Amino acid sequence: MSKTIKKVLKILKHIGVILILFILLIQFFLWTSIGQTLIAQQATKLLGNKLNTVVSIGKIDISFFKFIRLEQLYVEDLNQDTLFYIENLSTEIDQWHFKNDSFKLELGVVQIENPTYYLHQQNGDSITNLTKVFQSLFSNDTSSSSLNLEIISSQISINDGVFVWDNENYEELDFGISWDHIGLKKINGDITNFEMINDSFNAQINHLSGIEKSGFWVNNFAGNAIFSTTTTQVENLKITTPHSKISGDLLYEYDSIASYAEFIDQVYMRYELDTSVVSFTDIAYFAPPLQGMDYKITVFGKERGPVNDMKFQDIFLSYGSSTVLNGRIFISGLPNIESTSFNCRIKQLKSNHQDLATIKTYPFTEGKTIAIPNFLKNAGDIFFNGNFSGFYNNFVTYGTFQSDNGKVSTDLKLAQEDSGTIFYD
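RE: above sequence
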């Protein structure tokens, strides 16, 4: 009997050793990239079934449950087109908390290689391909509670990204940025102190660059940024393009994110510009009727209002070889230049025939310039202070003119014919 018990105990001992080895083998397998990838692939397959689409991952590597690396993360929309793709993503999880209806995730450095995001809305639809995918995930959720999400990262690095937003319900512009047909490529970014709470975030943008399919190119965008569903704010803003160099602060206010689709009249802008060089070549991408204007101006001052009703206070600008302007300028009616009115209080305006002769007439793409009255051709530097109101080709001005020909107080009306000839009285 005792021998039998000993044999049983010996067998149990061997079984115990085998179980321990088996458990260790499984744990070791889970620590390997192969094991983690196999589990991740099954998990993404289950998620894809839940979303009624394809979700796949090429490889995953988790080290000590802290360092994570993903390769070839792919999500399709319901039309079997790419919704989201990341070639490589690596990060470090510092800590995470989940309690009641709140989830907080703290990350170290996040590196994202070749991210691609295609946001699309078909003709006749009121929702995007992204919303359609996630509708299936939450369609059976009848709870009224919502998750409070907070994500923090010390640094986010983006390399060679692509973002596309295509809304078939709106036509695409022949020139300029179409806010319903955006195509950004070569997106590179360096972002620190990133914090996202639900649908708002703030971060220090050290570098952000990219090319829009319209041809608008940003070499560098930097600043301390805050974004929410009603506000976009960037302090210590620095923007560099091939044509412009801008610095200052900006604040955009709007009713909802949807207001960006009607940027010209639904986004209220506030600018505090430090000395900046601004090219109308860049401005034309946002106000297409200005296409063909290639002037560069140096400017500083304040601006308030949407694009179609801008108010410049204490503005200073210089242009060409001699032109300087200082004062208050209200511009209403953009982007339709033909119906755009100007109301200006000029403290100081200085120009000369050489600069005035470069001012183009609309349409600016034709390259025609205004015809300068003969009495201005030999006037040297021309100085003016007073008021100006009307349109670019039909206006009234009253104030004081001074030039080499003398000084005169005037109440002058100028009008331009289709031929470009200017009449005045």
